[in-house]
UniProtKB/TrEMBL annotation:
The chain crosses the membrane at residues 6-21, 33-56, 98-122, 176-195, 207-229, 266-289, 301-319, 360-387, 399-419. This is Na+ dependent nucleoside transporter domain protein. It comes from the Bacteria. GO terms for molecular function: nucleoside transmembrane transporter activity; symporter activity. Residues 8-80 form the Concentrative nucleoside transporter N-terminal domain. Residues 102-200 form the Nucleoside transporter/FeoB GTPase Gate domain. It is a multi-pass membrane protein. It comes from Chitinophaga pinensis (strain ATCC 43595 / DSM 2588 / LMG 13176 / NBRC 15968 / NCIMB 11800 / UQM 2034). Belongs to the concentrative nucleoside transporter (CNT) (TC 2.A.41) family. Keywords: Cell membrane, Membrane, Transmembrane, Transmembrane helix.
Amino acid sequence: MGRFQGLIGIILILGLAYLVSNNKKKINFRLVFSGIGLQVLIALLIFKVGFVFRFFQGVGKAMGKLEDFARQGAAFVYGGIAVESKPGTIVNYLNGGFVFAFNITAAIILVCCLVAILYHFGIMQRIVAVIARAMNVIMRVSGAEALSNVASAFVGQIEAQVMIRPYLPYMTRSELLASMSGSLACIAGGILVVYSNMGAAAGLDLAPMLITASLMAAPGALVISKIVFPETEESQTMGKVKLEVKSQYVNVIDAITHGAGDGFKIAMNVIAMIIGFIALIAFLDWGLLKVGQLCHLPFDLSLNWIFGKIFYPVAWAMGVPNQDVNSVATLLGQKLTINEFIAFKNLTDKTIPVVSERGLLIVSIAVCGFANFSSVGMQIGGIGVLAPERRADLASLGLKALFCGTLASYLSATIAGILI
């Protein structure tokens, strides 16, 4: 039944994209089917081929080791702090205690340092270029949008646009939407490590699912964006994948310094958003509860209740087992309207429990992306600095990109749910 529901989900997701398409006659169905085929291939390789699955499990363990290394750096700063590791058990932070702000700050800073080092030596650019060439051949998308979408699976949404900065002023509106959608559908490497370790702390091996989500998001975003906004102009990079390999850093020390600084800014932004949004949710839930009591409702009115009702049909169509549909629907609502960190935290600490294997797989992939309203603002502002002349286009495409990035994550999750 779950697989049948998933087929309904794929039809629903593609149907929604088709309904809002600005030029249905120009949709390139070869691109659409090749992109979906690429997503299916990625999911099959990871979940059905033993040695590939074991490889990504190994990558997940390596992510865990990264947090151990990051903890060593954080220990110098936080080592004297006593925290609760288990209920009633107080330990030094270095000896196994988990503090969300400390742990994510250290992990993001370390990953940003590593990415900066790889970028300085040209390794990151070459990895991105090789994968982008493959996507360019398979899907026949332009070089600029292929590079941007692939880069988004490794670095942050603004950093991915930096890699195609020379092309931004001349990209078509369809390319621009595809690039923005990919950045919203994917998740940065540093955040991926944090999510994986949050899952591990809860006894969940989510690394293969999260890596699958990140890899499937790039072709998925291209599929949805090219249905919503088909290419009707002539691209300057069609059939070409050329990436500037030159480092922006003076030397490796400069790369590490900038990486650490950028990582700290990202971590502080994450912490600020979480504090602000959780506090705002508490305030809104209090107000909704009072309204519900005044109206004599037979249940406690809350944002989670509202999300659960609005996103219930989507969660069901994606193939989520019946016992988890309401929980997954709530998490989908939190991810889109608040942010993905809140949804993932509630998933891993079981505040909103998902008990089935299929439900856990689907929701982990569906919420693994930057597609939320606050990210749209960050993206318009960030890319607007790189290409000020495109600011009007960016603003007009912002909500379309959010729509495409969200559907791309849902498409990846639905396909993975069918194949598991």
